[in-house]
Amino acid sequence: MTSLWLASRTETGADSRTAESATDPFEPDARYDEVVVGAGLTGLVTALLFARAGKRVAVLESRSIGAVATGRSTAKLSLLQGSQLQKIKAHTYQSIVQAYVDANRAGQEWMLEYASSRGVAVQRRDAVSYAGTAEGVETVGREFRLARAAGLDVRLVDRTDLPFETFGAVVLPDQAQFDPLDVLAALAADVRSLGGVIVENTRVTGVRASDPAEVRTSRGTVFGAHVHLTTGVPILDRGLYFAKLRALRSYAGSYEVPMGGGELPQSMYLSVDAPSRSIRTAPGRPTGDGSKGPATLIVGGNGHPVGRAGDTQRLVDDLHDWTARHFPGAVPTHSWSAQDYETPHRVPFVGYLPRGRGRIYFASGYDKWGMTNAVQAALTLVSDLSSDSPSWAKTLHHRATLPAAMASGLGANVATGWWALKGWAGVLTGPSTDALPIPAEGEGLIGRSGIHPTGTSTVGGRTCQVSAVCPHLGGVLTWNSAETSWDCPLHGSRFAPDGILLEGPTVHDLRV
Ligand SMILES: Cc1cc2nc3c(=O)[nH]c(=O)nc-3n(C[C@H](O)[C@H](O)[C@H](O)COP(=O)(O)OP(=O)(O)OC[C@H]3O[C@@H](n4cnc5c(N)ncnc54)[C@H](O)[C@@H]3O)c2cc1C
């Protein structure tokens, strides 16, 4: 499954807007001031800020620019974020809510200014958090009050222009949306123009907190005064952050909708209740005769913890069915999914990694609000090193963990423990690999080779057999039918059918 954004780059061939321009060469043993691991939005903004400060920067990316969360985002750049403020408030103090809003405002302002200076197309849109059920009305009211108290110019409305029943909404005018790969392409070009290098297809496998820090990769070693892990979830286990983050995957589809001369709803919408639905449009692309094609509808939702949803294809089908019901005649053009990470208090983790001797830093846990949070994280990482952190960053660094956040972290770890047991119990009491049929196209089956869990799948006519044990902490993998991948229900690592690592905290492929 490929996102509308990533697909448009491959469908039209290499055009000037392509983020994935040719990789820079890997220079073994090279020394840099700042080594940034991961070329998503966090990594590239961090790299650009350091390059602008005159630092020698290298970005090391295991896949390609934007290949993971950023290139699959719905890319709303908004300070109204569904019901996010009340989720934060439930786990921490009002001062943290305020600092979160201030941080996101700084991120949004930076991004708008950057996009404007680089000619990146941005559409200004109202953000709308709506109640899809009568029970959601109170949530809308709470979000309105918290947003107002935090200085956001929100208003309450009784109805929206969505083509189905809603029960009131909170609206924040003049937010923004874009194509995330346009932004990444501009950032990558700017990093390179300032002498930075961006090396793709280079997986970082370990970092030693020596002076300078030693960064081990799949292609050799490089050195950096500092190393910034902007890898979604941190790839080093120091500080056990993987256990404090919940990996949540969700789905999106883009649709052509016959509007009979009318227009698609123009704002950026997010329901505050179940089923969670995120709705926006993308401007029509130029057609062969030079005119602009019709706008595309994008609908997202049906999230779940990675590896724990059973048949994921049914979630994609459900999203398509829902869209066809509410936007009659909608025809899917692309479907995709992606994952992001949730912290117990819903505020991102940004800062130094414990036992990293002040050399290793990381940013994670944007809870699907990375367009603003990735930028505020980058601003934080860079300003922390010059001891010039904005006051919102200082407040967020010193947040207290309330019992509610501890309880939610504990609950998440109990669930993880249960999935670890369930995986192993299922395999040990299940059939041996030899007793299983060859999986049908698109199917993956887990069996036992002796007592070792083994996954067999058939994708594109090719049957592959791999170890079904996650190299991170030994979780038994589950088959993701929508993405045809092996996913770990413990901490969210994911692998292609042939065992190659796609994403997650591990740095190893599956044993074949
Ligand atoms: C379905 C969905 C919709 C979303 N919609 C929105 C939205 O509308 N608005 C919003 O604000 N946010 C949204 N988000 C959140 C946002 O997309 C993410 O928070 C953001 O893109 C994260 O950026 P990142 O740079 O931290 O991570 P990524 O973009 O995932 O980048 C991390 C990079 O690190 C690389 N990497 C990982 N491990 C290694 C390694 N060992 N060595 C080298 N490189 C490595 C990866 O390959 C990857 O390219 C959404 C998220 C999801 C899942």
- Percentage of residues assigned to helices: 25-40%
Gyration radius, to the nearest Å?
A: 22 Å
Instruction: State the major sheet.
Output: 9 strands, mixed
CATH fold naming of the domain at 122-178 and 247-342: D-Amino Acid Oxidase, Chain A, domain 2
- Helical/strand content category: alpha+beta
Ligand roster: flavin-adenine dinucleotide
Q: How many distinct helices?
A: 11
Number of strands: 24
Oligomer: single chain
Describe this protein's structure.
It is a single chain. The protein is α+β, with helices and mostly antiparallel strands and 512 residues long. Among the domains are: 122-178 and 247-342, D-Amino Acid Oxidase, Chain A, domain 2; 410-503, Rieske [2Fe-2S] iron-sulphur domain (Rieske Iron-sulfur Protein). Helix content is 29%, strand content 28%. The protein has 11 helices and 24 strands. The strands form 4 sheets. Strands 3, 4, 5, 6, 11, 12, 13, 14 and 15 form a 9-stranded mixed sheet that branches. Strand 12 (268-271) and strand 13 form a beta hairpin. Helix 4 crosses helix 9 (370-385). It is globular and about 60 Å long. Flavin-adenine dinucleotide (FAD) is lined by residues 37-43, 60-63, 67-70, 73-76, 203-204, 230-232, 235, 250, 252, 300, 338-340, 366, 368-372, 374, 507.
